UniProtKB/TrEMBL annotation:
The keyword DNA damage does not apply. PANTHER family: GLYCOSIDASE. Gene3D superfamilies: Glycosyl hydrolase domain, family 43 (2.115.10.20). Belongs to the glycosyl hydrolase 130 family. It comes from the Bacteria. InterPro entries: Glyco_hydro_beta-prop_sf (IPR023296), Mannoside_phosphorylase (IPR007184). One of its GO terms (molecular function) is glycosyltransferase activity. The keyword Endoplasmic reticulum does not apply. Keywords: Glycosyltransferase, Hydrolase, Transferase. This is Putative GH43/DUF377 family glycosyl hydrolase. It comes from Hephaestia caeni.
């Protein structure tokens, strides 16, 4: 489809690691593996704010017969060394530890969040607020803070992130009056619940959110069902944005008729339109690698959001090799676009995505594309 505007607004070369939270605090050389998956909101000034995931990786994770992982510990950072014979190092982003009856892994990078201020249309960077960066601050975040999503509800900004640690793979909530000074509220969804998107507005006085619990086991639908077993998007409600009750009704599920959305997860926080809540989500088509990620969209009933008013099976946004061609030498993954933010801009929406787990992409999509 044709977009009003579509480009990469931030790449790894734009990040100054001399101003990283890790700078001077570990005895190793690092580089920016990716600057991607940005949460997005509009500031009081009218400018846009991205909360960009910076994956800061060890330049030489393997040395002296060991592979190393960066870990936050007790207010500082340390390097853990694992003997090579105990791990699988096929993936440059992580390694699997042998032994046990379930997958155990560690990362060769640690992620933190960098606030990046853009012009009001998202076309250029105005400022990079290193002094407001969000780094691990609790044991549940010792392997990093990942994939922010920002929602404005009333006069408060709410940001969910995925926190990674041996304790749990959990969703953590931050709150802010201005989207720059954030307060860590703590864990709101427990083990392996990712892609939590808080609706930008209350419904009958309650907060709503999309969630995506994970696991190694899914039960089969009966033969001939229109649904495919696997990761799906659920709903939850809360009186205060801290304590969440899962909704009993099923929500967005993979359809058996297509492999393009065999795995699903939330994208941008739902925003209210004249036709209901607009939600952007990702579908993953299995392939030989991590899968092909595309962005899709649905409209939900304004009062009963579990009711899907309209859902598109054709992708809204796909990975674009032309955008990453100038940074081709940095690519380590392909066929991935991961949408994480949306704001209203009059006759169109500004949409923020991570491209190839490497850079930040800004796309202007006309409202007519959604029938609005």
């Amino acid at each position: 489809m044709s977009f009003f505007f579509d480009h990469l607004v931030l790449t790894p070369a734009d990040v100054d690691l001399a101003r990283s939270p890790l700078a001077g605090r570990i005895d190793a050389d690092t580089y920016v593996l990716g600057a991607f998956n940005p949460g997005m909101t509009r500031l009081a000034s009218g400018n846009l704010l991205l909360m960009v995931r910076i994956a800061e990786a060890l330049r030489e994770p393997i040395r002296d017969g060991h592979i190393h992982a960066i870990r936050w510990f007790d207010g500082g950072y340390t390097l853990d060394a694992w003997p090579l014979e105990q791990v699988d190092t096929a993936d440059p982003r992580k390694f699997t530890v042998h032994g046990g009856g379930w997958p155990v892994m560690a990362l060769t990078s640690l992620s933190w969040l960098l606030p990046v201020e853009l012009s009001s249309d998202g076309s250029r960077v105005v400022a990079m607020h290193y002094d407001h960066a969000i780094a691990p601050a609790a044991s549940c975040q010792c392997y990093g803070v990942e994939d922010a999503r920002i929602s404005r509800v009333g006069d408060r900004f709410l940001m969910t992130t995925c926190s990674v640690s041996p304790e749990r793979h959990a969703t953590v909530l931050y709150s802010s009056p201005d989207a720059l000074d954030w307060t860590l509220e703590g864990i709101v969804l427990d083990h392996q619940n990712k892609d939590m998107l808080i609706f930008e507005g209350l419904i009958d006085g309650r907060y709503w959110a999309e969630t995506r619990p994970l696991g190694d086991l899914f039960f089969a639908y009966p033969p001939g069902s229109e649904w495919r077993a696997g990761p799906s998007i659920n709903l939850a409600t809360s009186p205060d944005a801290l304590h969440w009750k899962p909704c009993d009704r099923p929500f967005l599920r993979p359809r058996a008729a297509t492999l393009a959305t065999a795995r699903m997860g939330g994208g941008a926080p739902p925003i209210l339109t004249d036709r209901g809540w607009l939600t952007l989500w990702h579908g993953v088509e299995p392939n030989a690698g991590v899968g092909t990620y595309r962005t899709y969209w649905s409209l939900l009933d304004a009062r009963e959001p579990w009711r899907v008013v309209h859902s598109e099976e054709m992708p809204l946004i796909e990975a674009d090799p032309a955008l990453t061609r100038p940074i081709e030498d940095l690519l380590y993954l392909r066929d991935i676009v991961f949408t994480t933010g949306i704001v209203d801009a009059g006759d169109h929406y500004v949409v923020a995505s991570g491209e190839a787990d490497l850079a930040c992409r800004i796309t202007h999509i006309p409202k007519a594309r959604f029938g609005l």
